[in-house]
Amino acid sequence: MKILGKITILLCGGLLLFFTSDFPDFGDANSPASTHLSPYFIEHTLEDTAVPNVVTSVLADYRGYDTMFETTVILTAGLACFLLLKIPTKEVKQRYYRHEPTGVTLRIEGDRYPDKSAVFTRIDSTWVPSDMIINFTCRILISFIQIFALYVVAHGHHSPGGGFQGGVLLGASVILFAISGNLRAAIKQFGEKTAALFGAAGVFIYVGTAALCLALGENFLNYSALAPLLGTDRIMARSHGILSVEIGVAVAVMAVMIWIYYNLSSAGKQDEGL
Amino acid sequence: MILPIDLIVLVLVIVSAVAAITVKDLLSASVMLGAYSFLLCLLWTVMGAVDVAFTEATVGAGVSTVFCVSAIFHTTRRTKD
Amino acid sequence: MELIETVKHMFLFIAAKANYWTYVILLMVGLYAMIAKNNLVKKIVGMTIFQTAVILFYVSIGYKKDASIPIVMHGSGHGHAADAAIRAADYINPLPHVLMLTAIVVGVATLGVALALAIKVYKEYGSLEEDEIHKQLRSR
Question: What are the structural domain ranges in chain C?
Fold first, then answer.
Protein backbone atom coordinates (compact mmCIF):
# COMPACT_ATOMS: atom_id res chain seq x y z
CA MET A 1 0.00 0.00 0.00
CA LYS A 2 2.89 2.35 0.79
CA ILE A 3 4.46 1.80 -2.66
CA LEU A 4 1.09 2.31 -4.35
CA GLY A 5 0.61 5.52 -2.38
CA LYS A 6 4.04 6.81 -3.33
CA ILE A 7 3.50 6.05 -7.04
CA THR A 8 0.10 7.79 -6.95
CA ILE A 9 1.34 10.94 -5.27
CA LEU A 10 4.42 11.14 -7.52
CA LEU A 11 2.24 10.87 -10.65
CA CYS A 12 -0.46 13.31 -9.45
CA GLY A 13 2.04 15.73 -7.93
CA GLY A 14 4.21 15.71 -11.05
CA LEU A 15 1.23 16.44 -13.30
CA LEU A 16 -0.06 19.21 -11.02
CA LEU A 17 3.40 20.82 -10.74
CA PHE A 18 3.87 20.58 -14.51
CA PHE A 19 0.60 22.38 -15.25
CA THR A 20 1.08 24.92 -12.45
CA SER A 21 3.59 26.72 -14.69
CA ASP A 22 0.68 27.59 -17.03
CA PHE A 23 -1.16 29.44 -14.24
CA PRO A 24 -1.38 33.22 -14.29
CA ASP A 25 1.22 34.81 -12.02
CA PHE A 26 0.53 34.95 -8.31
CA GLY A 27 -1.12 38.27 -7.50
CA ASP A 28 -2.09 39.09 -11.08
CA ALA A 29 -5.04 41.53 -11.04
CA ASN A 30 -6.07 40.46 -14.57
CA SER A 31 -6.27 36.73 -13.97
CA PRO A 32 -9.48 35.04 -15.22
CA ALA A 33 -10.69 34.42 -11.67
CA SER A 34 -10.70 38.13 -10.84
CA THR A 35 -12.12 39.62 -14.02
CA HIS A 36 -15.54 38.07 -14.61
CA LEU A 37 -17.89 38.12 -11.61
CA SER A 38 -16.09 39.59 -8.62
CA PRO A 39 -15.67 43.18 -9.98
CA TYR A 40 -19.46 43.42 -10.05
CA PHE A 41 -19.71 42.39 -6.40
CA ILE A 42 -17.03 44.86 -5.29
CA GLU A 43 -18.39 47.82 -7.25
CA HIS A 44 -22.09 47.31 -6.50
CA THR A 45 -22.14 46.08 -2.90
CA LEU A 46 -22.75 49.55 -1.42
CA GLU A 47 -25.44 50.48 -3.95
CA ASP A 48 -27.21 47.13 -3.74
CA THR A 49 -27.01 46.19 -0.08
CA ALA A 50 -25.33 49.03 1.91
CA VAL A 51 -22.90 46.47 3.37
CA PRO A 52 -19.21 47.48 3.06
CA ASN A 53 -17.86 44.00 3.83
CA VAL A 54 -18.07 42.34 0.43
CA VAL A 55 -17.63 38.86 1.88
CA THR A 56 -20.74 39.25 4.06
CA SER A 57 -22.87 40.66 1.28
CA VAL A 58 -21.87 37.91 -1.16
CA LEU A 59 -22.30 35.23 1.52
CA ALA A 60 -25.78 36.18 2.65
CA ASP A 61 -27.24 38.05 -0.29
CA TYR A 62 -25.76 37.35 -3.72
CA ARG A 63 -25.11 33.70 -2.92
CA GLY A 64 -27.85 33.22 -0.34
CA TYR A 65 -28.95 29.83 -1.64
CA ASP A 66 -25.42 28.45 -1.19
CA THR A 67 -25.23 29.51 2.46
CA MET A 68 -28.76 28.26 3.15
CA PHE A 69 -27.87 24.75 2.06
CA GLU A 70 -24.48 24.90 3.81
CA THR A 71 -26.37 25.54 7.05
CA THR A 72 -28.57 22.55 6.27
CA VAL A 73 -25.46 20.43 5.66
CA ILE A 74 -24.08 21.43 9.09
CA LEU A 75 -27.37 20.49 10.77
CA THR A 76 -27.33 17.17 8.90
CA ALA A 77 -23.78 16.50 10.11
CA GLY A 78 -24.84 17.10 13.71
CA LEU A 79 -27.78 14.76 13.24
CA ALA A 80 -25.52 12.11 11.67
CA CYS A 81 -23.12 12.29 14.64
CA PHE A 82 -26.06 11.87 17.02
CA LEU A 83 -27.55 8.91 15.13
CA LEU A 84 -24.16 7.18 14.75
CA LEU A 85 -23.19 7.31 18.41
CA LYS A 86 -26.44 7.38 20.35
CA ILE A 87 -27.54 3.77 20.43
CA PRO A 88 -29.22 2.44 23.58
CA THR A 89 -26.91 0.02 25.38
CA LYS A 90 -28.00 -2.84 27.61
CA GLU A 91 -24.81 -3.01 29.70
CA VAL A 92 -25.04 -2.67 33.50
CA LYS A 93 -24.54 0.91 34.48
CA GLN A 94 -21.82 1.67 36.98
CA ARG A 95 -21.60 4.97 38.74
CA TYR A 96 -19.04 6.32 41.14
CA TYR A 97 -19.88 8.44 44.15
CA ARG A 98 -17.68 10.20 46.63
CA HIS A 99 -18.80 10.45 50.23
CA GLU A 100 -17.79 14.00 51.06
CA PRO A 101 -17.31 13.82 54.87
CA THR A 102 -15.01 10.78 54.73
CA GLY A 103 -13.61 10.95 51.20
CA VAL A 104 -14.54 7.31 50.44
CA THR A 105 -15.39 6.48 46.83
CA LEU A 106 -18.27 4.06 46.19
CA ARG A 107 -19.07 2.12 43.05
CA ILE A 108 -22.79 1.47 42.66
CA GLU A 109 -24.28 -0.87 40.05
CA GLY A 110 -27.87 -0.94 38.85
CA ASP A 111 -30.42 1.73 39.56
CA ARG A 112 -29.98 2.30 43.28
CA TYR A 113 -28.07 5.52 43.17
CA PRO A 114 -28.78 8.69 45.08
CA ASP A 115 -29.43 11.44 42.55
CA LYS A 116 -29.68 14.38 44.90
CA SER A 117 -27.79 13.94 48.10
CA ALA A 118 -26.04 16.34 50.40
CA VAL A 119 -23.20 13.99 51.31
CA PHE A 120 -22.61 12.10 48.02
CA THR A 121 -21.22 13.76 44.90
CA ARG A 122 -21.11 12.06 41.53
CA ILE A 123 -17.65 11.61 39.93
CA ASP A 124 -16.55 10.26 36.55
CA SER A 125 -14.93 6.81 36.19
CA THR A 126 -11.79 8.45 34.80
CA TRP A 127 -11.90 11.16 37.37
CA VAL A 128 -9.42 13.98 37.54
CA PRO A 129 -9.78 16.33 40.51
CA SER A 130 -11.03 19.65 39.18
CA ASP A 131 -8.60 22.50 39.56
CA MET A 132 -9.91 25.65 41.23
CA ILE A 133 -7.69 28.00 39.21
CA ILE A 134 -8.80 26.54 35.88
CA ASN A 135 -12.48 26.59 36.90
CA PHE A 136 -12.36 30.18 38.09
CA THR A 137 -10.39 31.50 35.10
CA CYS A 138 -12.67 29.79 32.60
CA ARG A 139 -15.80 31.09 34.33
CA ILE A 140 -14.50 34.64 33.98
CA LEU A 141 -13.37 34.09 30.38
CA ILE A 142 -16.65 32.56 29.17
CA SER A 143 -18.71 35.72 29.61
CA PHE A 144 -16.17 37.77 27.68
CA ILE A 145 -16.04 35.19 24.89
CA GLN A 146 -19.82 35.32 24.58
CA ILE A 147 -19.94 39.12 24.46
CA PHE A 148 -17.20 39.10 21.83
CA ALA A 149 -19.16 36.50 19.83
CA LEU A 150 -22.29 38.67 19.88
CA TYR A 151 -20.16 41.62 18.71
CA VAL A 152 -18.74 39.51 15.87
CA VAL A 153 -22.23 38.51 14.72
CA ALA A 154 -23.66 42.02 14.96
CA HIS A 155 -20.67 43.82 13.44
CA GLY A 156 -20.13 41.43 10.54
CA HIS A 157 -21.36 44.06 8.08
CA HIS A 158 -18.46 46.42 8.71
CA SER A 159 -15.59 44.23 9.89
CA PRO A 160 -14.37 40.66 9.47
CA GLY A 161 -16.80 38.28 11.09
CA GLY A 162 -20.37 37.16 10.72
CA GLY A 163 -22.66 34.30 11.51
CA PHE A 164 -20.25 31.41 11.08
CA GLN A 165 -17.44 32.87 13.20
CA GLY A 166 -19.73 34.21 15.91
CA GLY A 167 -21.64 30.94 16.09
CA VAL A 168 -18.46 28.93 16.49
CA LEU A 169 -17.26 31.32 19.23
CA LEU A 170 -20.55 30.92 21.11
CA GLY A 171 -20.27 27.16 20.78
CA ALA A 172 -16.64 27.27 21.93
CA SER A 173 -17.65 29.11 25.11
CA VAL A 174 -20.02 26.28 26.11
CA ILE A 175 -17.38 23.68 25.12
CA LEU A 176 -14.86 25.51 27.34
CA PHE A 177 -17.35 25.32 30.20
CA ALA A 178 -17.74 21.57 29.64
CA ILE A 179 -13.97 21.03 29.54
CA SER A 180 -13.10 23.16 32.56
CA GLY A 181 -15.85 21.78 34.79
CA ASN A 182 -17.51 18.55 33.84
CA LEU A 183 -19.83 17.44 31.06
CA ARG A 184 -22.90 16.94 33.25
CA ALA A 185 -22.83 20.53 34.50
CA ALA A 186 -22.69 21.77 30.90
CA ILE A 187 -25.54 19.48 29.86
CA LYS A 188 -27.59 20.78 32.77
CA GLN A 189 -27.08 24.32 31.48
CA PHE A 190 -27.47 23.67 27.77
CA GLY A 191 -29.04 20.28 27.21
CA GLU A 192 -28.85 18.03 24.21
CA LYS A 193 -32.51 18.56 23.29
CA THR A 194 -31.94 22.31 23.50
CA ALA A 195 -28.98 21.96 21.15
CA ALA A 196 -31.06 20.01 18.64
CA LEU A 197 -33.91 22.51 18.86
CA PHE A 198 -31.56 25.48 18.47
CA GLY A 199 -29.91 23.86 15.44
CA ALA A 200 -33.27 23.41 13.76
CA ALA A 201 -34.37 26.89 14.86
CA GLY A 202 -31.32 28.48 13.23
CA VAL A 203 -32.06 26.88 9.88
CA PHE A 204 -35.72 27.86 10.36
CA ILE A 205 -34.78 31.53 10.94
CA TYR A 206 -32.79 31.51 7.68
CA VAL A 207 -35.47 29.80 5.61
CA GLY A 208 -38.20 31.78 7.37
CA THR A 209 -36.62 35.11 6.44
CA ALA A 210 -36.37 33.94 2.85
CA ALA A 211 -39.94 32.63 2.82
CA LEU A 212 -41.26 35.87 4.32
CA CYS A 213 -39.93 37.66 1.24
CA LEU A 214 -41.86 35.15 -0.86
CA ALA A 215 -45.01 35.76 1.19
CA LEU A 216 -44.66 39.52 0.68
CA GLY A 217 -44.85 39.02 -3.06
CA GLU A 218 -41.23 39.03 -4.20
CA ASN A 219 -38.63 36.40 -4.97
CA PHE A 220 -37.29 33.92 -2.42
CA LEU A 221 -34.35 35.50 -0.52
CA ASN A 222 -35.03 38.97 -1.98
CA TYR A 223 -34.77 40.92 1.26
CA SER A 224 -35.96 44.18 -0.35
CA ALA A 225 -39.48 42.86 0.17
CA LEU A 226 -39.05 43.37 3.92
CA ALA A 227 -38.85 47.17 3.52
CA PRO A 228 -42.51 47.90 4.46
CA LEU A 229 -42.21 45.69 7.56
CA LEU A 230 -38.99 47.31 8.77
CA GLY A 231 -39.97 50.84 7.81
CA THR A 232 -36.81 51.53 5.81
CA ASP A 233 -36.00 51.90 2.16
CA ARG A 234 -35.38 48.90 -0.05
CA ILE A 235 -31.58 49.01 0.19
CA MET A 236 -31.34 49.21 3.99
CA ALA A 237 -33.90 46.41 4.12
CA ARG A 238 -31.34 44.17 2.41
CA SER A 239 -28.81 45.05 5.11
CA HIS A 240 -31.28 44.14 7.86
CA GLY A 241 -32.25 40.96 6.01
CA ILE A 242 -28.58 39.96 5.93
CA LEU A 243 -28.36 40.53 9.71
CA SER A 244 -31.39 38.31 10.32
CA VAL A 245 -29.92 35.57 8.16
CA GLU A 246 -26.55 35.83 9.96
CA ILE A 247 -28.30 35.41 13.31
CA GLY A 248 -29.93 32.23 11.97
CA VAL A 249 -26.55 30.90 10.83
CA ALA A 250 -24.95 31.76 14.18
CA VAL A 251 -27.65 29.96 16.19
CA ALA A 252 -27.47 26.86 13.97
CA VAL A 253 -23.65 26.66 13.99
CA MET A 254 -23.45 27.22 17.76
CA ALA A 255 -25.95 24.49 18.53
CA VAL A 256 -24.44 21.96 16.13
CA MET A 257 -20.88 22.50 17.43
CA ILE A 258 -22.07 21.90 21.01
CA TRP A 259 -24.15 18.92 19.94
CA ILE A 260 -21.23 17.24 18.13
CA TYR A 261 -18.96 17.91 21.11
CA TYR A 262 -21.39 16.32 23.58
CA ASN A 263 -21.69 13.21 21.42
CA LEU A 264 -17.97 12.86 20.69
CA SER A 265 -16.68 13.54 24.20
CA SER A 266 -19.07 11.09 25.88
CA ALA A 267 -19.12 8.55 23.00
CA GLY A 268 -22.90 8.98 22.77
CA LYS A 269 -23.71 8.30 26.44
CA GLN A 270 -24.18 11.98 27.40
CA ASP A 271 -23.21 10.88 30.88
CA GLU A 272 -19.54 11.39 31.58
CA GLY A 273 -16.85 12.63 29.26
CA LEU A 274 -13.67 14.56 28.67
CA MET B 1 1.86 40.96 1.21
CA ILE B 2 5.42 40.65 2.46
CA LEU B 3 7.27 37.98 0.51
CA PRO B 4 9.80 36.79 3.18
CA ILE B 5 7.02 36.28 5.77
CA ASP B 6 4.95 34.44 3.18
CA LEU B 7 7.84 32.10 2.29
CA ILE B 8 8.72 31.40 5.95
CA VAL B 9 5.10 30.61 6.81
CA LEU B 10 4.76 28.36 3.74
CA VAL B 11 7.82 26.33 4.80
CA LEU B 12 6.50 26.07 8.39
CA VAL B 13 3.11 24.92 7.08
CA ILE B 14 4.70 22.09 5.10
CA VAL B 15 6.86 21.08 8.08
CA SER B 16 3.91 20.95 10.46
CA ALA B 17 1.75 19.04 7.94
CA VAL B 18 4.47 16.39 7.51
CA ALA B 19 4.96 16.26 11.30
CA ALA B 20 1.22 15.75 11.84
CA ILE B 21 1.16 12.63 9.68
CA THR B 22 4.51 11.13 10.71
CA VAL B 23 4.45 11.49 14.51
CA LYS B 24 3.82 8.16 16.27
CA ASP B 25 1.28 9.39 18.79
CA LEU B 26 -2.28 10.42 17.94
CA LEU B 27 -2.49 13.11 20.65
CA SER B 28 0.66 14.75 19.28
CA ALA B 29 -0.77 14.43 15.77
CA SER B 30 -3.93 16.31 16.72
CA VAL B 31 -1.95 19.03 18.49
CA MET B 32 0.28 19.34 15.40
CA LEU B 33 -2.90 19.70 13.34
CA GLY B 34 -3.92 22.60 15.58
CA ALA B 35 -0.52 24.26 15.06
CA TYR B 36 -0.88 23.69 11.31
CA SER B 37 -4.28 25.44 11.39
CA PHE B 38 -2.83 28.42 13.26
CA LEU B 39 -0.01 28.77 10.70
CA LEU B 40 -2.58 28.64 7.90
CA CYS B 41 -4.55 31.34 9.72
CA LEU B 42 -1.41 33.50 9.63
CA LEU B 43 -1.06 32.76 5.92
CA TRP B 44 -4.66 33.83 5.17
CA THR B 45 -4.04 37.08 7.06
CA VAL B 46 -0.87 37.73 5.07
CA MET B 47 -2.87 37.17 1.86
CA GLY B 48 -5.64 39.53 2.98
CA ALA B 49 -8.38 36.95 3.43
CA VAL B 50 -9.40 38.23 6.86
CA ASP B 51 -12.77 36.46 7.08
CA VAL B 52 -11.22 33.12 6.15
CA ALA B 53 -8.46 33.72 8.72
CA PHE B 54 -11.02 34.39 11.43
CA THR B 55 -12.95 31.25 10.56
CA GLU B 56 -9.78 29.15 10.47
CA ALA B 57 -8.67 30.47 13.87
CA THR B 58 -11.98 29.67 15.55
CA VAL B 59 -12.90 26.48 13.71
CA GLY B 60 -9.70 24.85 12.51
CA ALA B 61 -7.44 25.62 15.44
CA GLY B 62 -10.04 25.75 18.21
CA VAL B 63 -12.97 23.43 17.76
CA SER B 64 -11.48 20.73 15.50
CA THR B 65 -8.55 20.15 17.88
CA VAL B 66 -11.04 19.68 20.73
CA PHE B 67 -13.01 17.21 18.60
CA CYS B 68 -9.85 15.22 17.79
CA VAL B 69 -8.75 15.11 21.43
CA SER B 70 -12.20 14.01 22.63
CA ALA B 71 -12.29 11.24 20.01
CA ILE B 72 -8.81 10.05 21.07
CA PHE B 73 -9.98 10.12 24.72
CA HIS B 74 -12.51 7.42 23.84
CA THR B 75 -10.25 5.35 21.57
CA THR B 76 -6.51 5.07 21.95
CA ARG B 77 -3.48 7.24 21.37
CA ARG B 78 -1.33 4.29 20.31
CA THR B 79 -0.51 3.99 16.61
CA LYS B 80 1.85 1.88 14.55
CA ASP B 81 2.68 4.51 11.95
CA MET C 1 28.56 36.34 -11.66
CA GLU C 2 26.59 34.20 -14.06
CA LEU C 3 25.94 31.67 -11.30
CA ILE C 4 24.53 34.37 -9.01
CA GLU C 5 22.29 35.56 -11.83
CA THR C 6 21.03 32.00 -12.41
CA VAL C 7 20.34 31.47 -8.70
CA LYS C 8 18.50 34.79 -8.52
CA HIS C 9 16.46 33.85 -11.57
CA MET C 10 15.62 30.45 -10.04
CA PHE C 11 14.61 32.06 -6.74
CA LEU C 12 12.33 34.55 -8.45
CA PHE C 13 10.78 31.75 -10.51
CA ILE C 14 10.03 29.74 -7.37
CA ALA C 15 8.91 32.74 -5.31
CA ALA C 16 6.54 34.02 -8.02
CA LYS C 17 4.31 30.96 -7.60
CA ALA C 18 5.36 29.74 -4.14
CA ASN C 19 1.74 29.38 -3.00
CA TYR C 20 0.90 27.14 -5.93
CA TRP C 21 3.90 24.87 -5.32
CA THR C 22 2.98 24.65 -1.63
CA TYR C 23 -0.61 23.77 -2.39
CA VAL C 24 0.53 20.86 -4.58
CA ILE C 25 2.89 19.60 -1.85
CA LEU C 26 0.18 19.82 0.85
CA LEU C 27 -2.34 18.11 -1.42
CA MET C 28 0.10 15.24 -1.94
CA VAL C 29 0.91 15.00 1.79
CA GLY C 30 -2.80 14.68 2.55
CA LEU C 31 -3.41 12.17 -0.27
CA TYR C 32 -0.45 10.04 0.85
CA ALA C 33 -1.75 9.96 4.42
CA MET C 34 -5.19 8.92 3.18
CA ILE C 35 -3.82 6.12 1.00
CA ALA C 36 -0.83 4.73 2.87
CA LYS C 37 -1.36 5.34 6.58
CA ASN C 38 -2.65 2.41 8.58
CA ASN C 39 -4.36 4.26 11.41
CA LEU C 40 -7.89 5.61 10.92
CA VAL C 41 -7.30 8.87 12.83
CA LYS C 42 -4.15 9.45 10.74
CA LYS C 43 -6.31 9.06 7.62
CA ILE C 44 -8.73 11.66 9.02
CA VAL C 45 -5.81 14.02 9.71
CA GLY C 46 -4.73 13.49 6.08
CA MET C 47 -8.26 14.35 4.94
CA THR C 48 -8.12 17.63 6.85
CA ILE C 49 -4.75 18.51 5.30
CA PHE C 50 -6.15 17.71 1.84
CA GLN C 51 -9.10 20.03 2.49
CA THR C 52 -6.93 22.92 3.64
CA ALA C 53 -4.67 22.48 0.60
CA VAL C 54 -7.67 23.08 -1.67
CA ILE C 55 -8.58 26.13 0.45
CA LEU C 56 -5.01 27.44 0.03
CA PHE C 57 -5.38 27.06 -3.75
CA TYR C 58 -8.64 29.04 -3.84
CA VAL C 59 -7.41 31.86 -1.59
CA SER C 60 -4.20 32.13 -3.66
CA ILE C 61 -6.28 32.51 -6.84
CA GLY C 62 -8.13 35.46 -5.32
CA TYR C 63 -5.02 37.39 -4.28
CA LYS C 64 -4.20 40.65 -6.08
CA LYS C 65 -0.95 42.54 -5.75
CA ASP C 66 -1.15 45.98 -4.06
CA ALA C 67 -4.82 45.49 -3.20
CA SER C 68 -6.63 45.93 0.08
CA ILE C 69 -8.80 43.52 2.06
CA PRO C 70 -12.33 43.15 0.63
CA ILE C 71 -14.06 45.70 2.87
CA VAL C 72 -15.07 48.69 0.79
CA MET C 73 -13.96 52.14 1.97
CA HIS C 74 -16.95 54.41 2.43
CA GLY C 75 -17.84 57.72 4.02
CA SER C 76 -19.66 58.14 7.32
CA GLY C 77 -23.32 57.15 7.46
CA HIS C 78 -25.05 54.65 5.26
CA GLY C 79 -24.65 56.50 2.00
CA HIS C 80 -25.98 54.42 -0.86
CA ALA C 81 -23.74 55.88 -3.52
CA ALA C 82 -20.03 55.72 -2.82
CA ASP C 83 -18.21 58.99 -2.25
CA ALA C 84 -15.47 58.15 -4.72
CA ALA C 85 -15.63 55.63 -7.52
CA ILE C 86 -14.84 52.11 -6.32
CA ARG C 87 -12.26 50.35 -8.45
CA ALA C 88 -12.34 46.56 -8.42
CA ALA C 89 -8.55 46.37 -8.79
CA ASP C 90 -8.11 47.98 -5.35
CA TYR C 91 -9.75 45.12 -3.50
CA ILE C 92 -8.85 41.45 -3.25
CA ASN C 93 -11.28 39.10 -5.03
CA PRO C 94 -13.90 38.24 -2.37
CA LEU C 95 -15.58 35.34 -4.16
CA PRO C 96 -13.03 32.58 -3.23
CA HIS C 97 -13.13 33.81 0.38
CA VAL C 98 -16.90 33.30 0.55
CA LEU C 99 -16.70 29.82 -0.93
CA MET C 100 -13.88 28.77 1.40
CA LEU C 101 -15.40 30.29 4.55
CA THR C 102 -18.37 27.98 4.30
CA ALA C 103 -16.12 25.07 3.24
CA ILE C 104 -14.09 25.37 6.49
CA VAL C 105 -17.19 25.20 8.69
CA VAL C 106 -18.66 22.30 6.73
CA GLY C 107 -15.20 20.67 6.96
CA VAL C 108 -15.27 20.68 10.76
CA ALA C 109 -18.79 19.23 10.74
CA THR C 110 -17.67 16.36 8.49
CA LEU C 111 -14.59 15.93 10.72
CA GLY C 112 -17.01 15.35 13.60
CA VAL C 113 -18.88 12.70 11.61
CA ALA C 114 -15.61 10.99 10.63
CA LEU C 115 -14.42 10.90 14.26
CA ALA C 116 -17.81 9.51 15.33
CA LEU C 117 -17.33 6.70 12.79
CA ALA C 118 -13.83 6.08 14.17
CA ILE C 119 -15.23 5.80 17.71
CA LYS C 120 -17.86 3.31 16.45
CA VAL C 121 -15.17 1.22 14.74
CA TYR C 122 -13.04 1.20 17.88
CA LYS C 123 -16.00 0.07 20.00
CA GLU C 124 -16.72 -2.78 17.55
CA TYR C 125 -13.18 -4.05 16.85
CA GLY C 126 -11.07 -2.71 19.70
CA SER C 127 -8.52 -1.21 17.33
CA LEU C 128 -7.98 1.72 15.02
CA GLU C 129 -5.40 -0.08 12.84
CA GLU C 130 -6.67 -1.00 9.40
CA ASP C 131 -4.80 -4.33 9.12
CA GLU C 132 -6.03 -5.56 12.51
CA ILE C 133 -9.63 -4.73 11.56
CA HIS C 134 -9.17 -6.59 8.25
CA LYS C 135 -7.80 -9.62 10.10
CA GLN C 136 -10.83 -9.70 12.40
CA LEU C 137 -13.20 -9.31 9.46
CA ARG C 138 -11.59 -12.25 7.59
CA SER C 139 -11.70 -14.58 10.59
CA ARG C 140 -15.45 -14.13 11.02
Answer: 2-70+84-138
